[in-house]
Amino acid sequence: MRIPEFVRFAALAGSLGAVLSACREVAPAFGPNIPLARQNAEEFFYSVGSRFTNIQRSPRILRARAQFGHYALTPSGVYNDTSVWLAIGPDSARLFGDEGVFSVDRYIVSTKLSTTPLDALTESREIVRLRKLKDDEYEWFTNVEVALGRIEAKNITDVLAAALAAGEGKSPAAIRANYTTSFPHTMATMGRLFSIDTLRATPDSDGATTYDIAIRLTPDILKATMPHYAAYMDKYISKGKYRITLTDKSGARWFDARAANYYMHFKVRSKGGHFAPLEGAVRPMPESLTIHIDMSMKILIFTVGWTDMTGDFEIINTPHERGWSMHFTKEPEWHLPPTVGYLLKSPLRRPFQDPGIPVRVSIRDNPGAQTILNRRGALVVQESGILRFLNRLSGTAVGDFLGPSEREANRFNGDAFRALRQDVAALLQ
Question: What CA–CA distance (Å, rounded) separates 18 from 8?
């Protein structure tokens, strides 16, 4: 189960865009005081950036990653592959795991199945489980953990709140001038791939500010230093389209993001660093929302995707954990090539039936131990002709990414986090 690379990139660009639009006021929010903010930011950016630095994986891990991508929707092709799995569980589930840690100048990833808590900066762990439910039904489960240092979970939301509050009441020109001078290394690094084409900060009579940010992809600039990653983005990401919105029970929008034709567009509204609905009176953001996702990609000569995938979106907000929990139980409207129209589409409903598709992303702190970034999810697939067709397409995209494109993408991401680490450290001197 791999997250599509253009979704990963959108998340990176969106988070960096939020930090950049926030200017110098973001840095102190990493901790309750300047010394702790400096320590937390240093550990956070060092740990995340290290995971993209000169990654070294054993041949067994490389094969497992390739097989998981190739057979994501047709798991029978990898279920009995003894060269991949490390163990078999009591329910005949196949288990694979790896652990990574930064050493000197490289991130070393080794095969390992472990449940012991991560206890050192830069450590990470991934568990993949594949369980056979019926002759043609399989359940994937993945769990990824990354150690982030001693930053508290609430500090992460403090950074986001500071990012929103920093631009409130300021002109777009003032915001641009602030992030340009405050984040020079980040701007230079990220400028190889995107530019903030549009930045609007519109105040209203309720004292809130609506942010409208459009980020333009520039793979033509990146190709000079990272030609494979630039070519991959030009082939897949630039042609992909998505829209993600969050709404409450009344239908009010709280977040709107979309991408198409080399542009990513984000729209949010805030007051005092707290989210507000994009329309209507300012009020607290409810903890239960609905997420709506439209997505399409062109692979080879085919365009595939869906509209109106909706799910429950719960905000995790406890003293020691912050994050989001999503659960999809409603089948979207599929958009498939006419050539597969004759195939039965009932297997496409299976993932959304009991138990649905759960996805959870959170940051959890534990006093005296490492703060952990955790991502986990599950997916049930029912093999069929239509799944085999879609699997060939997704396998093509994954195969094109693994190798030189991924190495360059990792180098770009590592450069971005190192630049952020350098700029935030300078602001906290």
Answer: 15
Confidence at residue 88, expressed as pLDDT on a 0 to 100 scale:
96
- The answer on pLDDT for 1 being more than 80 is no
Beta-bridge mates of residue 378: 141
Query: DSSP letters along 352-404, please?
Result: GSTT-EEEEEEEE--TTS--EEEEEEEEEEE--HHHHHHHHHHHHHHHHHTTH
Element (H, E) at 7: helix 5-22
Backbone phi, psi, residue 25, to 5°:
-65, -15
Instruction: Give residue 342's pLDDT band: very low, low, confident or very high (50, 70, 90).
Output: low
**8-state DSSP, 114:** -
Tell me if residue 222 falls in helix, strand or coil.
helix
Q: Tell me the HSE value of 122 on the side-chain side, using a 13 A CA sphere.
A: 19
Q: Residue 300: what residue type?
A: L
Positive/negative CA dihedral, 215, 221, 226, 229? positive
CA–CA dist 199, 265 (Å, integer): 10
Query: 372 burial class (0-12, 13-18, 19+ CB within 10 angstroms)?
Result: buried
CB burial string 176-209: b at 16+ within 10 A, e below: bebbeebbebbbebbebbbebeebebeeeeeebb
50, 84, 149, 406 from 55: Cα distances, Å? 9, 20, 20, 10
CA distances to 14, 26, 251, 292 from 19, rounded to whole Å, are: 9, 7, 28, 25
- Asked whether the predicted pLDDT for residue 56 surpasses 70, the reply is yes
**Six token digits for residue 148:** 């982030």
Q: Could you report the per-residue pLDDT of 264-294, keeping only the tens digit for each?
A: 899 999 999 999 999 999 999 999 999 999 9
Query: How large is the average pLDDT for residues 390-408?
Result: 87
Closest CA to 376 of 140, 117, 75, 157: 140
Higher pLDDT, 377 or 3: 377
pTM of the model: 0.90
For every residue of 16-72, DSSP letters joined together read HHHHHHHGGGGGGGGSSSHHHHHHHHHHHHHHHHHTTSSEEE-HHHHHHHHHHHHTS
DSSP annotation of 331: -
CA pair distance 286, 282, nearest whole angstrom = 12
d(CA 312, CA 310): 7
